[in-house]
Amino acid sequence: MRYRLSHNGISGIQAGTTCGSVDLKIGSRFCKDQLTIKTYILNKVTSQVPVERVDIKELDYLKGILVADEDFSRPSECDVFLGSDCFFSILRNGRITGSKQSYLEERKP
User: Fold this and answer.
1) What percent of the chain is helix, strand and coil (3-state, nearest 5)?
2) With bands split at pLDDT 50, 70 and 90, how would you rate the model's confidence at 1?
């Protein structure tokens, strides 16, 4: 079944109407965990993120965290945004916090 949904973008970007949907299988680079989610195809949802390059040397609390995007600190286009409906299913047990108690990660056993 084809759905046409209208979406507002992030940071004032006009996302427009969906071009269709697809089931997307996301897998970990570090283990065999996989998640299949229903995604909606949009032309654009946001501008480049982050807005400016982040100096990860200043973020001590990120040391030792394996990330899916090794180049996350450089502004670039975003291919996929995960909503809260699937985001929490990929977090792992063991909370890691940053400065001012910002929430970063929970690790699965």
Assistant:
1) 15, 25, 60
2) very low
